[in-house]
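Record type: monomer structure entry
Structure origin: computed from sequence
Chain ID: A
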Amino acid sequence: MTPTRGGVLGVVPHGVSRRTGVATFARMATAVDRRLAARLMCIGFDGPVLNDAAREMIHAGVSGVILFARNATSHDELRVIAAAVKTCGAESHGPPIFVSIDHEGGRVVRLRSGMTVVGAMREVGRSGVEEASRVGALFARELRSANVDLDFAPVVDVDSNPANPVIGERSFSADPAIVARCGAAFITALQSGGVAGCAKHFPGHGDTAVDSHLALPRLSHAIERLRAIELPPFAAAARAGVASIMTAHVVFDAVDPGVPATMSRRVIEGVLRDELGFEGVVFSDCLEMEAIASTMSTGEAAVRAIEAGVDCVIICHRLDRQREAIDALASAIASGRLPRARVLQAVTRLDGMMQRFVR
């Protein structure tokens, strides 16, 4: 990471030279700082067994692990690797660790064996609220029995752009009222079955023509349009008590020109917290997606996201980037760039979700 004017990460503590580099800040960070930094992360890893990289991050104290098809493709494999994650977490003598997965139905499922096949959420939306509730309850039974605590679902983006390359049939509907009703029903059933839900991608990825995995989308809609189309499903999810909401790597110029929602205090604190009244955990989408990774380092992205109000950043792939994020977050805590009160607020929200759902 390149030192910025005014010191590494932009803040110079009293008594520290302006020539101080990242390595010095890393030395200043205490073991407590590093443990707090790790608590702000959810990580992924390669392979069907718990490898050394994953063990390193779990022992460092990360709050959660996200599993993909590279880790498990059947219910039995998922149950085994989820148990291994939790056993490793217990060995670290820290707080419980959550196991999560993207299990949306349709084309976004990681497990192809031992699980009930469910169509895309567009089909569920056409059937209505009862079907959304049935699917949420089904997912809860099957995921909970495999030791999964958190499902990064449902997608409550509104399918308002036929040219959207990433949302489409993952959405319940092009009608925000249908998305709101079906999303809330899905969430209620999923969480009643003991699995935390996550409404995504705030404040709305449905009208983009760019996939944020590949580049940074930008929407120039007026705030009135956002309140009429994009926001109602998230408001409904918040009223339904959804445990978490995931941010979108999308710029909403009407709210915060030029700043991705994941790094925008105006979006997270202003709109999500103050306007919609959401009190649960805010996750970032993966910081290794090109919308973010092409513009800044993973460490800087992690710090900016937590500064903006994200409670837990997701880094799905590379160990070097996960290490970098811990270093950057710990340095930001030590330097004062990240106020300890902000960090403890995030940890408290994560602890609340853990108490409700982690087994």
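Annotation 1: The longest strand covers residues 281-286.
Annotation 2: Residues 25 and 331 are 5 Å apart (CA to CA).
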